[in-house]
Amino acid sequence: MRIALVTGITGQDGSYLAEFLLAKGYTVHGLVRRSSTFNTDRIDHLYRDPHDPQARAFLHYGDLTDGTGLRHVLERVRPDEVYNLGAQSHVMVSFVQAEYTADVVATGTLRLLEALRDHMKVTGRQVRLYQAGSSEMFGASPPPQNEQTPFHPRSPYGASKVAAHLYAVNYREAYGMFVVNGILFNHESPRRGETFVSRKITRAAGRIKLGLQEKLYLGNLDARRDWGFAGDYVEAMWLSLQQAEPGDYVVATGESRSVRDFLDEAFGYLDLDWREHVFVDPRYIRPAEVDHLQGDAGRAREKLGWQAKVGFRELVRMMVDHDLDLARQEKTLRDAGHEIFLRGVGSGHG
Ligand code: NAP
Ligand code: GDD
Questions:
Q1: Among 139, 269, 294, 314, who pairs with 152 as Cys (CB 3.0-4.6 Å)?
Q2: Burial level of 329, CB count in 10 A (0-12/13-18/19+)?
Q3: What residue ranges do the domains of the chain occupy?
Q4: Atom of ligand 1 nearest to the CA of 161
Q5: Which ligand is nearest to the CA of 31?
Q6: pLDDT at 7 > cutoff 90
Q7: How far away, in angstroms, is 196 Cα from ligand 2 center?
């Protein structure tokens, strides 16, 4: 039975990856940050009491800013594969918390590489590492982007992911470690964080349809992204670690749409006209923007046999259906006289 350790298991991708690995028969260990409220909503359905002999998913407190803790978890878990998905992953927040973002995303990856290198040296074990890179690393480089496209990051987040990518390449070359860099383009799902633009739109569309909300404030509507479904993308992560040799892979749909296109699709599906509800608020405009991402995933297709299954329209509709259901639940509560708080509406750095 193979053992995987997943940092960022409580995030969107971590939850899909954990599901995927459990279905493949893995024992899955995840790193969880201590927080004063539960932060395991996305994986609660996978978790069983660890006293249950059938349990195959286990959680460990840890943080990418704490190298000693990472070493202890590696010793305890003795994984065959490590997936480094943990990150302060919000681009706009990285402008506000630049040092913290670099500490988690760049230095956190370095800490994990160092811990893994020592673990392998001391135990003589072979462990494979997947590093969650990002199309944000391409930044201002014009589309289509592939593994040969130069990096030109446009945010502290993007620059930190480039550093993590280069650390990973260096540890591969210097120590012969099996480290894979996935360069994933935007991928979304009903589990997407509610301050990313896709989910912000689908959440608002559902609430507007049911009269719970009137307005949606957004930033740059002209940005173009290559949006895929997170459930498809975690398979590429796993496939990339099953190859004879480590390498770097762009993972994308190959199609690019604007934020306006996303609005058209989401609101149109509910027979709403987004122009009556959407307003631009400069607080959501970034100090530097990534204008146009469109991935060329030819290498992943050829070497991994991977390609995206869920297209743009299906993705948006899946998210809208989910969020319309959530809005119905909120409305039911409100109609029954409960006070409901529409978290995310008009607040923060989303
Ligand atoms: P996400 O939903 O924001 O999840 C991030 C995960 O990292 C959460 O589990 C979070 O824990 C954890 N985390 C945050 N700070 C941490 C720290 N200091 N130490 C350990 N863990 C920490 O992100 P995602 O969309 O699943 O993305 C997964 C990874 O892929 C990230 O590295 C992201 O940068 C990268 N990526 C994502 C996309 C995309 O479109 N989704 C594209 C390219 C690359 P909490 O739950 O406690 O916050
Ligand atoms: N979040 C947000 N909120 N974005 C907005 C808004 C808004 O109100 N209005 C317009 N946008 C635009 C952003 O300026 C950006 O151009 C685009 O919508 C997408 O923004 P996000 O959904 O926040 O994603 P991202 O592309 O910045 O970053 C995501 O994808 C990266 C891969 O390319 C994150 O998941 C990163 O972690 C990931 O690496």
A1: 139
A2: exposed
A3: 3-189+227-251
A4: 34
A5: 1
A6: yes
A7: 6
